[in-house]
Amino acid sequence: MADTPTYDVVIIGGGPGGYNAAIRAGQLGLKAACVEMRGTLGGTCLNVGCMPSKALLHASELFAAAGGEFATLGIEVAPKLNLPQMMKQKADSVGQLTKGIEFLFKKNKVDWIKGAGKIAGPGKVEVTTADGAVTTLAAKNIVIATGSEPTPLPGVTVDQKRIVDSTGALELPEVPGHLVVIGAGIIGLELGSVWRRLGAKVTVVEFLDRITPGMDAETAKTFQRSLAKQGMEFRLGMKVTGAKASKKGVDLTYEPVAGGAAETLEADYVLVAIGRRPFTEHLGLESVGIAADKRGFIPTDHFRTSAEGVWAIGDVILGPMLAHKAEEDGVACIEMIAGKYGHVDYNLVPSVVYTSPEVAWVGQTEEQLKEAGRAYKAGKFPFTANSRAKINHETEGFVKVLADAATDEVLGVHMIGPSVSEMIGEYCVAMAFRAASEDVARTCHPHPTRSEALRQAAMGVEGWTMQA
Ligand code: FAD
Ligand code: NAI
């Protein structure tokens, strides 16, 4: 073991959890290495997740606006799709972002060890490179940040040609005539929106009788209505029973969950988006006695696994599978390793769906508050009454603030509308400081901005909303 490099911390996985952990470790003066087997850093998020999907959402939104709302504004254009260029600009941005992480690694003296990492007993990580060479790293601490992968659907085999997962749906070679999406969750609705805006007919087949489970039910209803208005079709309460792919397309069969006749949909492409599951393949968990739970998550207590000196963060542990949550985990975990106080408030992890309109929320839903028997008051403000939204012709949606009936503390905020992804952070900060709705209601907001809707909704909790 004389030549074995020794690190304070070896992180397996270079996604938002892993790379943030590695950078924070470097900042705190720990000798850190990050093992990543993909050719680039950034994990799912930068390579095949958040960033490429947002690049296509942005471009396709502009394409749709150029062919639609622009005319309302007095701008007459006839947009022509250049799909290869749309894909190229996406790839270029992704390339710049992944290179940016490499730069930050160098700046913070983090070693990127290229290859597949495997725990080989306490304090030992074996790395196998693409050409089969194996090196061993000695680690005082090991952080597992191996992320997640798409959940497969039995009977619907992803071939990345006609039946794709999210990675394939970010790279389709043409606009499908008909795209069938299985799963009305965030991936299905974001990527379904991309291809709908570019001209595809999109049908979403969902097992439950509602879309986006976990989202406040009233918001989800408004959201579904809006997507339906854009032409997205929904088959809710349906169970997919099989898919037959040919060179030309896919025949998908499904039947009502409640029982009833089976139906068939003919699709050019099928996107399977029924959730993601933790990824721990060939990780050597058994070498340190860690057993994943029955859904594949690594059990942790404040990021500590059952094995001394082995920690886990991000999508591979319980909690929302979101990049910013993985990032928070990574920073807090390293701070704990460094003997500091690391903390994440999971009630304050915001969620966003980057469609048009966008949906954003933080804290408790009305359903959760009712289930917990917590008395609350609600204030709601529609974007139709917001002057900036009105002059911009983007009046769909509302902001809803839920506050404790006795103390007025803000417990949850749910927004659907224009640019709400950029505005939810205001309530995250307010709630981190345990603000009352009145604190927000009495805080001056700039006029005319969409952010005034945030304040007006808070004013609504005590019933003194002023309509524009
Ligand atoms: P990952 O990002 O999955 O990174 C894990 C890394 O570990 C991977 O690069 C993998 O190659 C590597 N790895 C695995 N095993 C090994 C091994 N044995 N050795 C070496 N390396 C290994 N979240 C948001 O917050 N906002 C969004 O807008 C958003 N959009 C998304 C869109 C799509 C299409 C998808 C699929 C996901 C999206 N997500 C989004 C979710 C987000 O990507 C994940 O929550 C986030 O990437 C999780 O970070 P992580 O570090 O835990 O894991
Ligand atoms: P999801 O959990 O958001 O949604 C999956 C949907 O599929 C649910 O509505 C579920 O009821 C449905 N479903 C499950 N099994 C089914 C079946 N057999 N037939 C039909 N429907 C079925 O999962 P999704 O969309 O795959 O995304 C995975 C994760 O990625 C998300 O939970 C989120 O954490 C992350 N993500 C985040 C984004 C963001 O923050 N904007 C964007 C994209 C992904």
**Unreliable runs, pLDDT <50, ≥5 residues?**
none
Rg over CA atoms: 24 Å
Helix proportion: 25-40%
- Compute the number of strand runs: 22
Largest sheet entry? 7 strands, mixed
Which term fits the overall shape? globular
The fold-level CATH name of the largest domain is FAD/NAD(P)-binding domain
Q: What is the SS-derived class? A: alpha/beta
Compute the separation of the termini in Å. 72 Å
Question: Which small compounds were modeled alongside the protein?
Answer: flavin-adenine dinucleotide, 1,4-dihydronicotinamide adenine dinucleotide
Strand content: 15-25%
Q: What count of domains describes the coordinates?
A: 3
The average pLDDT score comes to: 97
Briefly, what CATH class of the largest domain?
A: Alpha Beta
CATH homologous superfamily caption of the largest domain: FAD/NAD(P)-binding domain
The CATH architecture category of the largest domain equals: 3-Layer(bba) Sandwich
The total count of helices amounts to 14
Main attributes of the structure:
FAD/NAD(P)-binding domain; 468 residues; binds flavin-adenine dinucleotide; binds 1,4-dihydronicotinamide adenine dinucleotide; five-stranded parallel sheet; 22 strands; Enolase-like, domain 1; alpha/beta; 3 domains; seven-stranded mixed sheet
What can you see in these coordinates?
This protein has 14 helices and 22 strands. The strands form 5 sheets. Strands 1, 2, 3, 4, 5, 6 and 17 form a 7-stranded mixed β-sheet that branches. With 468 residues, the chain is α/β, with parallel strands linked by helices. The longest helix is centred in the first third of the chain and has 25 residues, at 83-107. A hairpin with a 4-residue loop joins strand 18 (351-353) and strand 19. The protein folds into 3 domains: 6-150 and 277-346, FAD/NAD(P)-binding domain; 163-274, FAD/NAD(P)-binding domain, CATH 3.50.50.60; 357-461, FAD/NAD-linked reductase, C-terminal dimerisation domain (Enolase-like, domain 1), CATH 3.30.390.30. It has helices at 16-27, 43-48, 50-66, 69-72, 83-107, 166-169, 186-197, 217-229, 323-337, 366-371, 387-391, 420-432, 437-441, 452-461; strands spanning 6-12, 32-36, 110-114, 116-119, 124-128, 134-144, 148-150, 163-164, 178-182, 201-205, 233-235, 238-245, 250-256, 263-267, 269-272, 276-278, 310-312, 351-353, 358-363, 376-382, 398-404, 410-417. The model has no long low-confidence stretch (mean pLDDT 97). It is globular. The structure holds flavin-adenine dinucleotide (FAD) and 1,4-dihydronicotinamide adenine dinucleotide (NAI). Flavin-adenine dinucleotide binds at residues 12-18, 35-38, 43-45, 49-50, 53, 116-117, 145-148, 166, 187, 279, 283, 314-315, 321-324, 326, 354.
